[in-house]
Amino acid sequence: MADRGEDEDLEMAIRMSMTPEPKRNKPRDEVAGVVSGLPEDSPESKTRRRELMAAAAEKRMATVVRVSPLSPVGNKELKKGGEVVRRVDELPLRDQSLCKELSAEEANKLFVMVFGSQVSKDILAQWCNQGIRFSSDPETSMGLVQHEGGPCGVLATIQAFVLKYIIFFSNELSRIPQNRGLGVSSKSHSVPSYNISSLTEDVKVRALVRSMGEILFSCGSNKRAVIATLSIPGNDIQRFEGISEDEQVVASSLKALSIESSLDLLKVLRVETHTSETTAFQRLEAIIPLFQSRMGALLFLISALLSRGLDLVQSDRDDPSLPLVTAPFGHASQEIVNLLLCGQAVANVFDGRMDLGGGMFLKGISRNVEVGFLTLLESLNFCKVGQFLKTPKWPIWVVGSESHYTVLFALDPTVQNENELEGRETQIRKAFDAQDQSGGGGFISVEGFHQVIRETNIKLPQVKLDNLCSAGFIVWSEFWQVILDLDQSLGGLKDSSGLMVPPRWTPEEFMADVQGPSASGASDSTGKDIEVSKPEPVQHAPLVDCVRTRWPRAVCNWSGDPPSIV
């Protein structure tokens, strides 16, 4: 009898939880009706109703799978619209993934944090009309398409992670079973897949889902991922299981949706907290049409913020009074990009933190990252990108300019390999930057300089040491020239044996070295002149300046119009 009563309660709760969300102009109790014979207005009835609906939601999300009507069905069966739904009781319920509403206070805090207290309709329209969708053009089929200005910071970061999976894990994506978690092994992926044009839609969607899941768990300190969804009165868009067949349904459901205030957000936003990567992966894949819809970019940003936690997001920031979406053009701030890249909404791109004195600090990047970041602003001396973002695990970088974000990537991970001299250069520069409290200005205090030479085991002659310190501060370019002329035995880069040549400081010096022999020609053993091919002329564009913040001696060439990053 006890089992029968439990089954009846469960079936009733499932029917209740599948009922469309009641309209807000009716009290919830009037819609829900009577539970288990208790008076509908009694506290016991309301409590019992909430318990049953919560249990049903958890059962449905964590233990229900769909099968073909022709498949053998075990356990308990329920029929819905001719489709057999099977309860798989043997799966463990290890994930906390209940769907809930935000409180009015949380919704207001979230809205103001993102858009501020006074936001234009144009900015809201930009962020409410951008889905996370792949290009339909075969030549750019692995790329996400941006329709509106503003959300490019969100799209570019997701794109960087998608490229990581498509380039370096495409074979694994093709073999992924539906219930696999998000973790991947970095072994045996040094040779990437180059046949990008032949990617199937399933592989691209899996790459997208895994990218989104990895970012959200990173924001949640690898402990949780919060997924933001929508609940539209009269629709059931939270429970989609297909992909292509549901996109039109999603679009139709969202036609009349308008987000202009925190109250609008409160009415439709629902959030789910997942502690299991497997169930988070499954849930993201099940509702991917929602993220492909016009609300996708905004929902993903909200998911990342809630995964981090609104209070922690504010504590990450240097100035939490400013909105994360910047006026007047609605661009994603660096805090948004950093949150998606490294899991913390810090405003700066240098390593560690900068001590301003008086107990005040500016926060930067605190750990290694999967994909990195480069910016044109560094070439203009407006900031300094640290080694954490410059040398990510995979050769993929979000690239920022004054008004846009895009992605730079390499197919070969060895582009980040360094020879002995380059490794030494990186070591010294990292130690110098750690003492640079100017925000990337390229100079440090005398005290900080002594710390640098101790850490890097540089033994400067007293005359050179006094000369560098005479101005009361040390400039990187002057220090570097001293290192180039300092023998390796003293910690410098000069090789007395002549077997190794220190790297040139500027690309122009490097190209002068390369072009010298070609310009003067050469002769063979008979004295006859032979033609020596000249190198391609150096081409320049803002992207080149950006690339050279990572590889100072890079030589860039292209065919046709210069690549744009604006």
Short account of what is shown:
This protein is α+β, with helices and mostly antiparallel strands and 566 residues long. The chain contains 23 helices and 17 strands. It has helices at residues 2-17, 28-32, 43-63, 104-115, 121-127, 152-168, 170-174, 201-219, 244-253, 262-268, 277-286, 288-292, 296-308, 310-316, 334-342, 376-379, 387-390, 420-435, 446-455, 462-469, 476-484, 507-520, 542-547, and strands at 64-67, 77-80, 83-87, 99-101, 225-230, 269-274, 325-326, 331-332, 353-357, 360-363, 372-375, 396-400, 405-409, 443-445, 473-475, 522-523, 529-530.
What features would you describe in this structure?
Residues 21-31 have a biased composition (Basic and acidic residues). One of its GO terms (molecular function) is K48-linked deubiquitinase activity. Residues 1-11 have a biased composition (Acidic residues). Belongs to the MINDY deubiquitinase family. FAM188 subfamily. Residues 1-48 are annotated as: Disordered. This protein is of the alpha+beta class and 566 residues long. The protein contains 23 helices and 17 strands. It has helices spanning 2-17, 28-32, 43-63, 104-115, 121-127, 152-168, 170-174, 201-219, 244-253, 262-268, 277-286, 288-292, 296-308, 310-316, 334-342, 376-379, 387-390, 420-435, 446-455, 462-469, 476-484, 507-520, 542-547; strands at 64-67, 77-80, 83-87, 99-101, 225-230, 269-274, 325-326, 331-332, 353-357, 360-363, 372-375, 396-400, 405-409, 443-445, 473-475, 522-523, 529-530. It has a 3-stranded antiparallel beta sheet with strand order 1-3-2. A 3-stranded antiparallel beta sheet has the order 4-6-5. It has a 3-stranded mixed beta sheet with strand order 11-12-13. A hairpin with a 2-residue loop joins strand 9 (353-357) and strand 10 (360-363). It is globular, with a radius of gyration of 29 Å. The N and C termini lie far apart (69 Å). Residues 13-38, 57-94, 177-183, 185-191, 239-244 and 514-523 have low confidence and may be disordered.
